Amino acid sequence: MKTNNKTYHMSILALFIAIVIVQNFVPLFGYIPVGPLSITTIHITVIVAALVLGWKDGAFVGGVWGLITFIRAFVSPTSPIAPIVFTNPIVSIVPRILIGIVTAVVFYFIYKWWKNKTLAMVIASVLGSLVNTVLVLGLIYLLYHGQAANFYKVDMGQLLPYIMGLVVTNGVPEMILAGVVAPLIAAPLQKLVRKN
């Protein structure tokens, strides 16, 4: 019975990894263009994995996304700035791993205190999304502010306001999307995984 449980768990984990891979390579599935920007949806898969399987597997699924981002920055960049910033694993991999960890830990503690699973999932999903946005853009600013200013065609004094604008235009819709969609997917999956 223990082997069957482990096999079942591994198959669910493999499914999440497969979804992340598909989202990275199928146009309009993982990155939805909205005007000159794009809304990321891959973080939702990482958040759902963390809510359903826990922090270790959530971190692993996030790490897979980060590794794909890192490799694509060298061979098939998703944007003109990707070869500059995402070739650094601190920017491309670490924030994605932390999505899974933060989501699962926040969910655990909020659910433990308030016993409201839906509220815990919503807050954990929003914070998981926020971790990705703040860390990626924050690390770009800290590590590449000179290059980023040139790339975004803004002067150095305007780079921080510009990045804060990206947090609002990209980060807020991504957080709202995560807060709504991730709990809707994770709640029935949690029941199914625990049942089996």
Question: Which helices and strands, and how do they pair?
Answer:
Layout: H1 2-25, E1 31-34, E2 37-40, H2 42-53, H3 55-75, H4 82-85, H5 89-92, H6 94-114, H7 117-151, H8 156-195
Antiparallel strand pairs: 1-2
User: Please, how many helices?
Assistant: 8
Across the major sheet, the strand order is 1-2
- Write down the secondary-structure element order: HEEHHHHHHH
How many individual β-strands? 2
- Please identify the top-level CATH class: Mainly Alpha
Radius of gyration: 17 Å
Work out the strand percent: under 5%
User: How far apart are the first and last residues' alpha carbons, in Å?
Assistant: 11 Å
What is the domain tally?
1
CATH fold description: Arp2/3 complex 21 kDa subunit ARPC3
Helix content: over 70%
**Assigned CATH architecture:** Orthogonal Bundle
C-alpha geometry = globular
Q: Which structural class fits the helix and strand makeup?
A: mainly alpha
Low-confidence runs of at least 5 consecutive residues: none
Pfam families: ECF_trnsprt
Keywords: Membrane, Transmembrane, Transmembrane helix
Organism: Dellaglioa algida DSM 15638
GO molecular function, one term: transmembrane transporter activity
